[in-house]
Design brief:
Blueprint lengths: L10 E6 L4 H16 L8 E6 L5 H15 L7 H8 L2 E5 L8 H7 L5 E6 L6 H10 L8 E5 L6 H14 L5 E4 L6 H11 L13 E9 L8 H26 L8 H14 L8 E7 L21 E6 L11 E6 L6 E8 L17 E7 L3 E9 L8 E9 H5 L8 H11 L8 H20 L5 E4 L6 H8 L11
Parallel strand pairs: 1-2, 1-4, 2-3, 4-5, 5-6, 7-10, 8-15
Antiparallel strand pairs: 7-11, 8-9, 9-10, 11-12, 12-13, 13-14
Helix pairs in contact: 1-2, 1-11, 5-6, 6-12, 8-9, 8-12, 9-12
The structure holds 6-O-phosphono-beta-D-glucopyranose.
């Protein structure tokens, strides 16, 4: 099967922070891949904007080096790279001053949609968006793209939203959560809303519990200063895990359109109950299995920032009352695994005597790596000798099911093209971000007032012991973190 390419109109895309790490590592390589796929029309322009005193030629040299560094040789034929670079230009702009803005305006064309990607720290969102508007660069059709951290708490998130909304309307603001750009995360919606099979059983009457795991094997190396002020709750739960929870728990929207989808997600976040300390576990990795400890890389050697968090969350509505959502994420765990496991209830009455230990059905949606779906079923063990039951997986790996030729696009490729297309479905709305912070703030306030200290866990393990206890207490257990 070959992926279909949906054409877009030619565009002007300005990348503020165009010389930065994200631009070089993700944004430009993603644009290049879309160029290779034939999705970037000839008349499109990509303009880097940053403080560095470069010109167009200097910028093209920098991006050529970035493509060499971040793409495999086979993915970047020299002639295609040379063609792509022709679309690039650069303007040195002072985000907090007057320099460069007139020159940048001069490069933008009246007949093209303008998108402004703010690949800069949030402290510059207000300055840049204000100047875009005051200096006449933003038009009513323009789009602005921002990315996490979208605040540190509810107050700062509100502040950022209001700074952006001084110059841009909500339907012009594209807030990226790169998890929404992942193919498998979108597949969650296809699975739920394009198959009749699941909806009748997708509720607390049939589902015992849900586990959402985003386990990472990498540590915080190189990002200690940022991470120490953030921690797993702000870095992963408030945004990525929250999106996974929303897509799992939301009601079917009436259409796959931006506000219908986002309205339903917002309702889930608003239905989340405050979490008591007994339902929160924080952890921090210590040295183990030949790996450094969290504190080796933290800014503060006595840091009590969590590199792991597990939460028993409750969505208080008719669909989910009584079904716990266990969330777990951490760094330096045994393996890199992201999955959503739907654990169904047991049959109401067993007709088989002495059948042996048996598991109830589970649907496991693997987001990464090795994307796919597994349905755990009970069948009869083959052979004579009575009715013995056994648990088997019905496995589907997307790569195998879809066959060769299907490229898995990076999340940024999809999201940047959606900006250009003007489709906000996979972007967070301001009220959604604020509601997620309101819930996260409550969780953080709970552990702060309890003076909670994260439990240490070995690097390369499955996380702190207390997180196992969180489920044991309810007669359940986490699924193993295995690659
Ligand atoms: C980022 C976090 O948003 O997501 C990182 O800041 C984390 O700490 C990353 O490692 C995980 O993304 P992915 O796509 O590798 O699962």
């Amino acid at each position: 099967m070959v992926a279909r390419i949906i054409p877009v109109e030619s565009f002007d895309l300005v990348i503020f922070g165009g010389t930065g790490d994200l631009a070089r590592r993700k944004i430009l390589p993603s644009l290049f891949r879309r160029f290779v796929a034939g999705q970037i029309p000839d008349a499109s322009r990509i303009i880097g904007a940053a403080r560095s005193d470069l010109d167009g030629a200097g910028y093209r040299t920098m991006i050529e080096a970035a493509l060499t560094e971040f793409l495999e040789p086979a993915d970047r034929p020299a002639d295609v790279v040379a063609d792509f670079l022709k679309h690039l230009d650069y303007v040195a702009v002072d985000a907090k001053g007057d320099d460069g803005w007139d020159e940048l305006r001069g490069k933008l064309r009246d007949d093209k949609i303008r998108s402004f990607y703010l690949s800069v720290g949030p402290s510059l969102f207000g300055d840049i968006s204000r100047r875009l508007s005051q200096k006449g660069l933003a038009t009513p059709e323009s789009r602005i793209v921002v990315e996490k951290p979208l605040g540190h708490d509810l107050a700062s998130a509100r502040d950022l939203n209001s700074q952006l909304s001084e110059s841009f309307a909500e339907n012009q603001i594209y807030r990226i959560d790169h998890y929404l750009g992942k193919e498998t995360v979108q597949n969650l919606m296809a699975l739920r809303f394009a198959n009749a099979l699941f909806e009748p059983v997708w509720n607390s009457q049939h589902i015992d519990s849900i586990q959402i795991t985003v386990a990472e094997s990498i540590g915080v190396k190189g990002r200690g200063a940022y991470y120490d002020r953030s921690g797993a709750m702000r870095d992963m739960v408030q945004n990525h895990m929250m999106q996974l929870l929303c897509l799992t728990a939301m009601e079917p929207p009436s259409h796959f359109d931006p506000d219908a989808v986002r309205d339903e997600k917002l309702k889930v976040i608003r239905a989340l109950q405050p979490v008591p300390m007994t339902d929160i576990v924080r952890g921090q990795y210590r040295a183990g299995n030949g790996e450094d400890s969290y504190r080796d890389h933290a800014e503060n050697q006595d840091s009590t920032t969590e590199s792991f968090v597990a939460i028993k969350a409750e969505v208080a509505n008719w669909r989910w009352a009584g079904t716990p959502f266990y969330l777990r994420t951490g760094k330096r765990l045994r393996a890199r695994v992201s999955e959503i496991a739907i654990q169904f209830k047991d049959v109401p009455h067993s007709i088989f005597d002495g059948e042996g230990p048996r598991k109830s059905n589970a649907l496991i949606i693997r987001l990464q790596p090795d994307e796919g779906i597994t349905l755990r079923m009970t069948i009869k063990e083959p052979g004579p000798g009575g009715m013995r039951l056994t648990d088997v997986p019905l496995d589907m790996t997307f790569a195998e099911a879809l066959g060769p030729g299907v490229e898995t696009a990076d999340a940024y490729e999809r999201l940047i093209m959606d900006v250009v297309r003007g489709n906000q479905t996979l972007f967070m709305r301001g009220d959604e971000v604020e509601a997620a912070w309101a819930w996260a703030d409550q969780v953080i306030a709970t552990w702060t007032s309890a003076k909670d200290v994260p439990q240490q866990y070995d690097a390369g393990s499955s996380g702190p012991e207390d997180s196992l206890a969180l489920l044991h207490r309810d007669g359940r257990r986490w699924r193993d973190i295995n690659s």
